[in-house]
Design a protein that fits this description.
about 230 residues, alpha/beta, Undecaprenyl pyrophosphate synthetase, binds farnesyl diphosphate
Length: about 230
C-alpha cells in the first residue's frame, strides 16, 4: 500500500524528567538522554524524506522550572548545537529556530544564529527548534507586528496572519506527535495545528526511537484527512 509520508512532523518531546526520576537520577540526566533520541529521530526523518521536522525544546512556560534545570537546559542547547552541526551538514539538514529570542542569553542566541547561518544552504530536512516558544506568544508577537506595520483591516486574512508567525514559509504540520502519554497541545502550535493529525505515544521521550516513530508514521498513513470537507 502506498502510504503518504507527512511533509511536516512536529514533536512535543515530553517525559525526560519522569524517565530520569524512574531511574533515581536528576531531571537533567533525562534531558541529556533526550538529545540522543532527537539525534536518531532527525536521522530517521531525513532517511524517510520528511521535509520538515519541528521539535518543542523549551516553552515560554518552562522558565518557571527550578533555575538549576533551566540553566542546565540552556547549557545543553549550546553544547548540542556546537557538537551536532557537522553531522547536520553531512546530512544536509537546515536548522531554524522559532520562539522569542529576546529573553534568551547572549551565548544561546549566538549559537542559534551561527547554526542557522552555517546550515542555511542545506537542501535536505528542515529541522525547526522551538525555543522559548508558545503558540499564544507567537500570535501575540505576530499581531503586534501587524499593528506596527499598520496593515489595513481589509487586508487581514489567514494567509497574512500565517506570514507574520514565526513559522512563515513552513507548511502547517501534518502530524503532531506527543510522547510521555499526555493528550494535550500545551500551548504549542495553536494556529498551525488546525488540521494536524495527533498521535500520542506513552513512551517517555528518552525511550522513543525509530521503531516508535515508524508506528506514528504508519498510523498517520492510515488516517483519512478531510480538512473539514466530506472527503
Ligand atoms: C520535556 O520533558 C523536555 C524538555 C522540556 C526539554 C527537551 C529538550 C531536549 C531533548 C534537548 C534538545 C536539544 C536541542 C539543541 C534542541 P519534561 O522535562 O517536561 O519531562 P516530564 O514531563 O517527565 O517532567
Amino acid at each position: 500500500m502506498n502510504r503518504p509520508v507527512p511533509r511536516h512532523v512536529a514533536i512535543v518531546m515530553d517525559g525526560n524528567g519522569r524517565w530520569a526520576r524512574k531511574r533515581l537520577m536528576p531531571r537533567n540526566f533525562g534531558h541529556r538522554k533526550g538529545v540522543e533520541t532527537l539525534r536518531s529521530i532527525v536521522k530517521a526523518s531525513a532517511a524517510r524524506r520528511i521535509d520538515y521536522l519541528t521539535v518543542f525544546a523549551f516553552s515560554t512556560e518552562n522558565w518557571s522550572r527550578p533555575q538549576e534545570e533551566v540553566g542546565a537546559l540552556m547549557s545543553l542547547f549550546v553544547e548540542t548545537l556546537e557538537k551536532e552541526v557537522p553531522a547536520l551538514m553531512e546530512n544536509k539538514v537546515r536548522i531554524r529556530f522559532i520562539g522569542d529570542r529576546s529573553a534568551l542569553g547572549r551565548k544561546v542566541i549566538e549559537k542559534m544564529r551561527m547554526s542557522e547561518t552555517q546550515t542555511e544552504k542545506n537542501k535536505g530536512l528542515t529541522l525547526t527548534i522551538a525555543l522559548n516558544y508558545s503558540g499564544r506568544d507567537d500570535l501575540v508577537r505576530a499581531f503586534g507586528r501587524i499593528v506596527e506595520d499598520t496593515v489595513p483591516a481589509q487586508h487581514i486574512d489567514e494567509t497574512l496572519i500565517s506570514s507574520y508567525l514565526d513559522t512563515a514559509g513552513i507548511p502547517d504540520p501534518d502530524l503532531i506527535i506527543r510522547t510521555g502519554g499526555e493528550h494535550r497541545i500545551s500551548n504549542f502550535f495553536l494556529w498551525q495545528s488546525a488540521y494536524s493529525e495527533f498521535y500520542t505515544s506513552s513512551r517517555y521521550w528518552p525511550d522513543f526511537n525509530e521503531k516508535e516513530f515508524d508506528k506514528a508514521l504508519n498510523a498517520y498513513g492510515k488516517r483519512e484527512r478531510r480538512f473539514g470537507g466530506l472527503g
